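Let's practice the habit of predicting before peeking. Look at the sequence and jot down your guess about where helices and strands might fall. Then scroll down.
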Amino acid sequence: MLDANNSLIATTGYVTELVYELLDAHVDTLRLARDLDGDPAWAAHLEYLRGLQRVGREALAHGPNGRA
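Done guessing? Here is the structure:
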């Protein structure tokens, strides 16, 4: 039998980790933007941010207050 409290803790932990990753990505973006000069790393980082955004939206949609 699934304990609702354990499920909530697992979800909260996942979302917390995701928020920290998004914050780290923001810092990385600021660093990369300083020397933006057609660097292929910029394009790769934007794709990384898009992936994080997609995963974040999915996680929030399936969370306790999600719409999915």
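How did you do? Residues 13-61 form one domain.
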